[in-house]
Amino acid sequence: MKTNAGRFFEDYRLGETIAHAVPRTVSGGERALYHALYPARHALSSSDEFARACGLPAAPVDELMAFHLVFGKTVPDISLNAVANLGYAEGRWLKPVFPGDTLRAESTVIGLKENSNGASGVVWVRTRGLNQRDEAVLSYVRWVMVRKRDTAAPAPAPTVPELAGSVAAPDLVIPEGLSFADYDLTLAGEPHRWDDYAVGEKIDHVDGITVEESEHMLATRLWQNTAKVHFDATNRPDGRRLIYGGHVISLARTLSFNGLANAQMIVALNAGAHANPCFAGDTVRAWSEVLDKAETAAPGVGALRLRLVAMKHGTEPFVTRSEDGKYLPGVLLDLDYWALVPR
């Protein structure tokens, strides 16, 4: 048999490292498609001249675009038979990615736990994206619920990894040469600097984007995310394709521009949960909360720890859970990340 049905839960082994197939050379065309899909507007990843004025050789691709590219490499080996992608932790962007770079990915299995129904289990992996010089450009942990091929197959001893609640501010990697000392607020689009934000502040990003089936399918194909729940409408009893979670992340990040236009670079992903499924026709809105602030050694550069919540239209902002502690049905995404902001 030459075809591959993908891995099921019982196929994973604790400690194994999986080298994912098909490296990908990043092009300017992919950047243009990314900006068309969402549309991303942060100046540092939009303008070579703006990036050079900030000490970089050119505009890097959006950090989430790099994430999607690496994530897509992992899907055939990690989540082809997924029920759902559940969460993220310990994510760090280690080097900017530029058009012309070639990315590949590898993942190490760090946790396994069968679900009580015996029909699926949760797999934890630590994934690294590497460039053509074998330099790590990003690293993150994610966990995913994967179907079993045979419900009678014996389950491995449960191993749940201990994960940090957040990336510590001193561990944030600031790109070499980055400086916001001569930062142009006018070109960036908003006047708000690091000092203008207060811990505990909440921002309603006001705008909304209605998800279209066509753009979701373009996104999953662009990032080569072949998970069956996104591609194959016969894979779910309700006949609906789940919107790729990364698509929701990028939509929410784009919406956050209104109020956080100067949060120019994502440098860490502390935690993240896809709280509820998103489908074509849903209108996505977003709000943010400032969780923490930190200084950095780079000239004029501060860091904000931000909580980004995406929700369906009609869901009240600034509320995520019901009295029983469960996510409200209209909450789609709950993301905790660090971003670099001019001081």
Provide a short characterization of the protein structure:
The chain has 343 residues and is α+β, with helices and mostly antiparallel strands. It has helices at residues 28-37, 48-53, 63-78, 185-188, 213-222, 228-231, 245-255, 257-260, and strands at residues 17-19, 24-25, 82-93, 102-114, 120-130, 136-147, 202-210, 265-274, 283-295, 301-312, 331-342. A hairpin with a 5-residue loop joins strand 5 and strand 6 (136-147).
In words, what does this structure look like?
The chain has helices at residues 28-37, 48-53, 63-78, 185-188, 213-222, 228-231, 245-255, 257-260; strands at residues 17-19, 24-25, 82-93, 102-114, 120-130, 136-147, 202-210, 265-274, 283-295, 301-312, 331-342. It is of the alpha+beta class. Strands 1, 2, 3, 4, 5, 6, 7, 8, 9, 10 and 11 form an eleven-stranded antiparallel β-sheet that branches.
Topology:
Blueprint: E1 17-19, E2 24-25, H1 28-37, H2 48-53, H3 63-78, E3 82-93, E4 102-114, E5 120-130, E6 136-147, H4 185-188, E7 202-210, H5 213-222, H6 228-231, H7 245-255, H8 257-260, E8 265-274, E9 283-295, E10 301-312, E11 331-342
Antiparallel strand pairs: 1-4, 2-4, 3-6, 3-8, 4-5, 5-6, 7-9, 8-11, 9-10, 10-11
Distance between the termini: 59 Å
How much helix, percentage-wise, in residues? 10-25%
Q: What's the β-strand tally?
A: 11
Average pLDDT over all residues: 94
Multimerization state = single chain
> Helix- and strand-based class?
alpha+beta
Order of helices and strands: EEHHHEEEEHEHHHHEEEE
Number of alpha- plus pi-helical segments: 8
The largest sheet, given as strand count, sense and whether it forms a barrel, is: 11 strands, antiparallel
Shape: globular
- Spans where pLDDT lies below 50 across 5 or more residues: none
Strand coverage percent: 25-35%
Rg result = 20 Å
